[in-house]
Specification:
single chain, alpha+beta, six-stranded mixed β-sheet, three-stranded antiparallel β-sheet
């Protein structure tokens, strides 16, 4: 009787055990089909549509490995991912940005992709882009979309002024840029509007053109902050445009990029430095007949070099289906598909084959200008610096804000960035 009872209990428990082994919500169903969760941060309609269409195309041709689209948000992604990692509920495929990956990579939450990615994908993306997702010896994401910071200009205003129009082949120097913004200014009209609500990223990334690096890694592997002549060129230009020349509006220093667009459309500012993807907002919001164009950011000793933090696709270390997840990433980032994602987000693909696509080299909406700048894009200076978020929030942001507004001078800025900053970083590098 006991044997019969045990058999009956096993008959009841076996289906449950099989369900648990196949992954349940985490990966499979009773038919052995694998289900992967892909958390996307796409938010513009064109971008969301492109991502969802690619998921549908994958699912139509991979009945045994289905992908479930999960909508995430840039506003909360870091905290949301941290919670999901610690709770063992992270999505299999994770959309994020390279400057958000360091702590997750060092914390063991992301899979090392070196042995998971196909050679095609490794070879298609330049090493400078892979450097943005390399932490220690591992690769913890695939960089796939990026954007340079450019000058969006009122084309009519510039043509009427007679100033030299820069091109990627012949950009303005920082000195010429300052002189031209002064020439373009007049009563209640400014040559440039700097939206520097979050000044650190813009300052560090644009300073690469002048040879600025800000962070130096010593032979012991530890990083220290420095602030030398090359690092000061870009911030001093902004400071002088606002305080000495009157060619930049101090009112925009606390604004985000979108906040400056009404004044730009209204003829208050001749130019606004913005990410390349802002072109979509301009196309959608500009008054009828408003003529605008994209210009390269000023160039320095290192030409048009500029720091970027590409958007990335990573795989959770806890995912039971890493190989299948990597196959989906490879599908998503085939050259033709990467072009679709780039067009949806109005950004540039990292892949060399995708960058050759005629759709990204058209004069319409100045795609060609942005594509011409791709070669100069480099990893953002703070990419792998542990402790950078605290340095940025507690030291650099308030210091730059006070400097740009004229509340402190260059020496005080240097002291705070270096002395106070190195105290912060030291706590993360013991």
């Amino acid at each position: 009787m006991r044997r019969h009872a045990l058999a009956a209990v096993l008959a009841l428990l076996l289906p449950l055990a099989l369900t648990g082994c196949s992954g349940g919500d985490g990966g499979g169903d009773d038919g052995g089909r694998i289900t992967l969760d892909f958390q996307s941060l796409a938010w513009q309609k064109e971008s969301v549509d492109a991502n969802k269409q690619l998921v549908e195309e994958w699912n139509a041709t991979h009945p045994d490995v289905q992908v479930r689209y999960v909508q995430g948000s840039w506003d909360s992604v870091h905290d949301q991912l941290l919670t999901s990692f610690e709770g063992g509920e992270a999505p299999d495929i994770i959309h994020d940005a390279s400057d958000d990956l360091a702590d997750f990579a060092y914390g063991g939450y992301l899979a090392d992709l070196r042995d998971l990615l196909p050679r095609r994908l490794k070879d298609d993306i330049p090493q400078r882009s892979w450097d943005t997702v390399t932490f220690g010896e591992g690769i913890y994401g695939v960089p796939f979309l990026q954007e340079p910071r450019v000058l969006i200009a009122n084309a009519t205003w510039l043509k009427e002024s007679g100033v030299r129009i820069p091109t990627p082949e012949a950009p303005w120097s920082w000195d010429e840029f300052r002189a031209i913004t002064k020439e373009l200014s007049g009563k209640d009209r400014y040559g440039i509007a700097w939206p520097l609500k979050e000044p650190v990223s813009a300052t560090l990334n644009l300073s690469l053109s002048t040879g600025g690096r800000m962070f130096v890694r010593g032979p012991d592997g530890k990083v220290k902050v420095r602030f030398e002549a090359a690092d000061a060129v870009m911030p001093r230009t902004v400071h002088d445009q606002v305080g000495a020349d009157g060619s930049a509006s101090g009112a925009t220093l606390g604004m985000g990029g979108s906040d400056t667009l009404p004044g730009f459309f209204g003829g208050k500012y001749a130019m606004v430095p913005l990410g390349f993807s802002y072109r979509q907002q301009i196309v959608q919001q500009a008054p009828k007949g408003f003529d605008w164009q994209v210009l390269p950011a000023p160039a320095g000793a290192d030409g048009l070099a500029q720091g970027v933090s590409p958007q990335t696709l990573s795989i959770a270390e806890d995912s039971p289906h890493k190989k299948e997840a990597a196959a989906f990433v490879d599908f998503l980032l085939r050259p033709a598909n990467m072009v679709r994602l780039a067009l949806g987000d109005w950004m540039l693909p990292t892949g060399t084959e995708a960058l050759k696509d005629p759709a990204l080299r058209t004069e319409r909406d100045d795609w060609a200008t942005g594509t011409a700048l791709a070669e100069g894009l480099r990893p953002a200076p703070a990419q792998s610096v542990r402790g950078y978020p605290e340095w940025k929030d507690k030291v650099a942001t308030p210091a730059f804000q006070e400097y740009y507004s004229g509340a402190i001078g260059l020496e005080e800025l240097r002291k705070r960035l270096v002395d106070d900053g190195n105290l912060v970083l030291a706590r993360y590098q013991r």
